[in-house]
Amino acid sequence: MNTRTQYQRVNRRNEAGNRNGHSKNGHADPVNHHVGAEDELPPVGVARSIGSMVSDVLSLTELQYQLFKSDTTEAVQRTYLAISVLLVGSLIILSCLPVGLMALVHLVHQTTELSLGISYAIVMAIGLLFGSLIGYVGFRRLQNVGNVYRRSQEELTQNVRWLKSSLKR
């Protein structure tokens, strides 16, 4: 038997006994017009309102959890990408040092007629600059990984505000 049917039965039973300010057991009750008010179910509107509120809170909780899972998956993917970029940048720096930079040193030395020492310094500065640039790009991408939770935080804030305003009504 659902709550509405129970409430209607109790209401009919009380109306039958509540004529002339008497309760269902026949005693006068000046305040509630009947004794046994605690036996009555709450008005249907209040019961529905509370049930609806609980249902909405549970739905929001479930949606908040799904958003958190989605944001976490996105954060992990962004982290993998940022770490991959950092790793590639590091590998390029390491691979440039022994082979590529030596070849560039000899090229600079032969084309500019600078000393071998100055050619080494120029090529080393170019290699460090290039590797640092790639490392910086990877580092910046890694810093942006934390921004993925902003959506969850904003949504949670809105849900808490809605719940507070609904409870104040």
Indicate the topology.
Blueprint lengths: L2 H15 L26 H69 L3 H28 L6 H19 L1
Structure summarized in a few sentences:
By secondary structure, the chain is mainly α. The protein is built from four helices and no strands. Helix content is 78%, strand content 0%.
Estimated structural class? mainly alpha
How far is the N terminus from the C terminus? 30 Å
Strand content: under 5%
Please work out how many helical segments DSSP would assign: 4
Low-confidence stretches: 1-7, 13-37
How many domains would you count in the coordinates?
Answer: 2
What is the percent of helical residues? over 70%
Shape: rod-shaped
SSE string, helix = H, strand = E? HHHH
Average pLDDT rating: 75
Rg (CA only)? 37 Å
The beta-strand count equals 0
- How many strands, which pairing sense, and closed or not: the largest β-sheet? none
Polypeptide structure, described:
This protein is mainly α and 169 residues long. 78% of the residues lie in helices and 0% in strands. The protein is built from 4 helices and no strands. The chain is rod-shaped. The protein starts with a helix and ends with a helix.
